[in-house]
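the two lines:
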Amino acid sequence: MNFLGVILLTYLGLLAVTFFIGRVMPIDPVLAIVGDRAPEHVVQRVREELGLNKPLYTQFGIYLKKVAQGDFGTSVLTSNPVMTDIKRTFPATIELATLGIIIGAGLGIPLGVWAAVRRGGMVDQIVRVMGLIGYSVPIFWLGLMGLVLFYAKLDWVAGPGRIDVAYEYSVTLETGFLLLDTARQGQWDAFRNVLSHLILPASLLGYFSLAYISRMTRSFMLSELAQEYVIAARAKGLSETRIIWRHALRNAMVPLVTVVALSYAGLLEGSVLTETVFAWPGLGLYITNSLQNADMNAVLGGTIVVGSIFIGLNLLSDLLYKLLDPRTRTR
Amino acid sequence: MNSTDASARKESLHDWLMSERPHSRRQASLGRAYGAWRTFARNRLAMLGLTIVVLLVLVAIFADQLAPYSPYIGDLRTTRLLPPSAAHWFGTDDQGRDILSRIIHGSRITLYVVALVAVLAAPIGLIVGTVAGYAGGWLDAALMRITDIFLAFPRLILALAFVAALGPGIENAVIAIAITSWPPYARIARAETLTIRQADYIAAVQLIGASPWRIVLRHIMPLCVPSVIVRVTLDMAGIILTRAGLGFLGLGAQPPMPEWGALIANGRLYVLDQWWVAAAPGAAIFVVSLAFNLLGDGLRDALDPKGVK
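prediction for all of em together
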């Protein structure tokens, strides 16, 4: 099956699942609109207007068409179209996750390389322990404890939220990425404030991707360093630094791209928990707020957007793997 | 005298178990289990993990005897939000309830969820994987495509949407987690089946005239169980963390149930001044999922016949 077919089928699966979830929902959408005292003919008419009397596959067809047009319905909570809400909240999530993955990959890859080169040494042990903790600790709990220590006790960073109220209305939103917007408008006080809010949650996300990335880097590097071309390079008299960074790491980069893409997808998904802890006004917080208010349109819209990006990154990493590794090319 | 007797008997038992030429089927399988156990027991971290898991089971069984106070009723006048002390090791929460007692009772919910997810998800994965691997052809392609689709799904978000639709509660959280966690087991079971399928004894069973279902259920599936068990143990930590996340968002067990994730959510309201309310349950989650990770790593190394890591 070709790549496009796989993508289409997977997205269709995601939409089928969300459609199914929307249908089995115990809250009757008709009752939500007309209330439980409406006369029978009103209920019937609303049911027809919503298309709920049509057969399931027709309803699914209508649903697909609407989603393709970016129409996820209206949020009960904010009374905006869900798509508008998502557009407003999403940059905050992207800003946080991107800084997180930069920290995670920027530190994780060198650490992993170091651990592989000095196998069994200090750094190797540290990478192992950090990996174990990263796989075992609840991210929202670590976030809370981080807030207690670095915000309440030490006062090194700003607390929950994206920016202090004092700066909130002086910054005009252009891209939605506050770091970029404040920098472009030359508001350096606000920039520092944004950074101070951002650094704790971003380091937290960075730690979780670092735990995964460094562990994978280590094992990829170990298998590369055992290859014969490394022996050949050594016999040729190349410096060890050059062998490690130019020869072995370059080959290890191929699977590593996949790992980084996957952990970026994981960070976007995990935003539901981190954003709740840090009151970060992103898509994750939007989904959880809607959840608590039984706002299903918003929940499903958010699920589809996060799910689509997750699936996209997943499949993209497969494709990248094939593009980067000459051995898996078909031609 | 007695001790030398005992050690001599122990020696012979060891020899009997490690015998190169077992006389019966039972001796062979016992010997194999013994060998795996010896590899496992040499791994200190894995033994630590096993100890913690056994302790967790014991704590869950004897929760009523171990908990010093009631997990549900606190004294609002005198014991509200007390810091850790000799009387309340982990402090008390906003309802004046002893946090240690609540964590001890919460271990039951943790084990219940973990066991239920394993019992639901592992058989689904086993059946899908073995059937796909043995049948081959279009059935294999279709089942594996479905598995791939589920693998590409974001687990936490999907579980969240499921629980949102079904309504919060432990059982619904379990169903949501189980639905999203079977695909890796199916992958493993299929890979194992593909190697077993060509074995001579399968050909022999086919010649006798066994039905495909019988072959899959009686002759292939039992051999896939060990690797799936290892994978399930490694996944336990993830299951515990997902469930704690759902509990934290208020989608797991409902108050006043002492579910660990919900305890953290409750403590979140006071975290800047009374940090202990959230600290202790999170530490409990951390220790237990760490234990499952160590145990899973050890099991994988002990049961993997190739012994390569």
